[in-house]
Write a structure and sequence with these properties.
alpha+beta; 11 helices
Length: 470
């Protein structure tokens, strides 16, 4: 079919072909049972494949009915989230929402849940009609194992998405935290892979730590927040989930334990072993840029595999850590190929990593918002770069400010922001008794030392925004 969504060419014809080729649901093949209410070996069940939010009806779940049927007023349960509610309204798409008395096996429709909390309705979850449902029919007791029995009726295949890239979002400009929180919740309704939790930053205030499947997922979500909700926000350094093995203290008897690290601040100073997620990627590039693209393996920890020729283009297969992907890999690839190369990737297990926690201290105080996990080979370069940029950005105070970068308890880079200078009264211009001048100078020095002890450095949003710029 030669199809055009713009002009509508052949759209009707291809829909008719889909109807002809795709087989009917088993229960609908027998015309006598098409509208039979709740006829099935299983209790009435439906799969949620999308959802949206309505101010009056709450969350509207888009469903496909697999067994039986549902009608308005039915008591139902969402198996994965454990939420129960009565159906406020249901119906079909025509293409607008068209209410109906009931929807049956094999049909696509919607269910108005009345729920207001987006996190309760998950794509891939099972809607289960629980009226007159015998929980003991599939093992377990009808009293002690209710939650377990409900899960036995779930449609197969659902699992929680596992985010691998974590970026904190903080409201900026006219945007309020509540606006950002509501917008992320609404996006989560039709983006099952999106997860978030509250976060806080001394410089930027309240925010949300959001989990993404990758850099592209983040870019799409950020674009939707801007385009659909008109929000302004600041993003933190991207981080990934590491698996870390470290020895515990006396409470654990010094045993080695393994756990997942999502926050850079939680990364141990001296881990035994570290594992990081890996990706398998394919780079599509014109043949004339092969040399420049291959040079990327000298910049990133990239292992080149097979190279296939397709017409005038090449497909280069490779494998590299996910952390390298979020370190400007896309920009470097575009620069090396004059914008012609593109790539796709998928997760490919994990591998041991040489990663370190880099902390930034200002006036001997750790700035948790600037802490991040970097490859061991890049620690010193990142430390010097961050210290130099902070020296340019930090305003002068009445006391000197030491900027230090620390790794494994050792200072590896340092810069100093000098104190503001102050003339010694008229002595600095007209001379005067040297003894009195020295006495005044020492007094000022003691005052600066006292200020240094009492002073607390706070990074303004402007400084934080400039630090995060590439």
């Amino acid at each position: 079919f030669r199809i055009s969504a713009k002009t509508g060419r052949d759209v009707k014809e291809i829909l008719e072909e889909v109807i002809r080729i795709v087989p009917l649901p088993r229960i609908l093949a027998d015309s006598s049972r098409i509208k039979a209410d709740y006829i099935s070996d299983n209790p009435p069940r439906a799969l949620i494949f999308d959802s949206l939010y309505d101010d009056h009806k709450g969350i509207i779940a888009f469903v496909r009915i697999f067994d039986g049927g549902f009608k308005t007023g039915d008591e139902v349960r969402l198996v994965a989230s454990g939420t129960q509610f009565k159906i406020k309204e249901l119906g079909y798409f025509s293409p607008d929402l068209k209410p109906s008395a009931a929807i049956y096996t094999g049909e696509i429709g919607y269910i108005a849940t009345g729920l207001k909390e987006p996190a309760l309705v998950k794509i891939g979850d099972t809607v289960l009609r629980i009226e007159n449902l015998k929980l003991s029919s599939r093992g377990g007791s009808s009293s002690g194992g209710k939650t377990e029995n409900f899960s036995n009726f779930a449609l197969q295949g659902y699992r929680e998405a596992a985010p691998v890239v974590f970026i904190s979002l903080y409201p900026d400009g006219a945007t309020k935290f509540d606006d950002l929180f509501k917008a992320i919740g609404r996006l989560q309704l039709n983006d099952a892979a999106l997860s978030f939790e509250p976060d806080a930053n001394d410089a930027l205030g309240r925010g949300l730590k959001v989990g993404f499947l990758g850099q592209l997922h983040f870019e799409i979500t950020a674009s939707r927040l801007t385009r659909e909700f008109n929000l302004e926000f600041i993003t933190s350094f991207p981080s990934i989930a590491y698996r870390v093995s470290a020895r515990g203290g006396s409470a654990s008897g010094g045993k080695e334990t393994t756990y997942i690290i999502k926050q850079p601040q939680d990364f141990p100073d001296d881990p035994e072993r570290v594992w990081q997620p890996m990706i398998k990627l394919e780079i599509l590039t014109p043949q004339q840029y092969l040399g420049q693209v291959m040079n990327l393996k000298n910049v990133f920890d990239l292992e080149i595999g097979d190279i296939l020729t397709i017409g005038e283009n090449l497909i280069i297969s490779g494998r590299m850590p996910l952390a390298e992907l979020i370190r400007d890999f896309d920009d470097q690839l575009k620069s090396s190929s004059a914008g012609f190369a593109s790539f796709s990737y998928e997760l490919d297990g994990e591998a041991e990593a040489e990663a370190e926690k880099l902390e930034i201290l200002i006036a001997d105080e750790v700035m948790p918002e600037l802490t991040r996990i970097v490859p061991k080979k890049d620690v010193e370069r990142e430390a010097r770069s961050t210290a130099e940029r902070l020296k340019e950005l930090l305003p002068k105070q009445q006391f000197t400010q030491a900027i230090q970068a620390r790794c494994r308890g050792r200072i590896i880079a340092r810069e100093t922001v000098p104190a503001m200078k102050k003339l010694l009264g008229n002595f600095g211009k007209t001379g005067g008794d040297r003894t009195r001048k020295m006495k005044l100078w020492k007094k000022q020095q003691r005052g600066k030392e006292k200020l240094k002890e009492m002073g607390k450095i706070k990074l303004s949003p402007e400084i934080f925004r400039n630090i995060l710029k590439k």
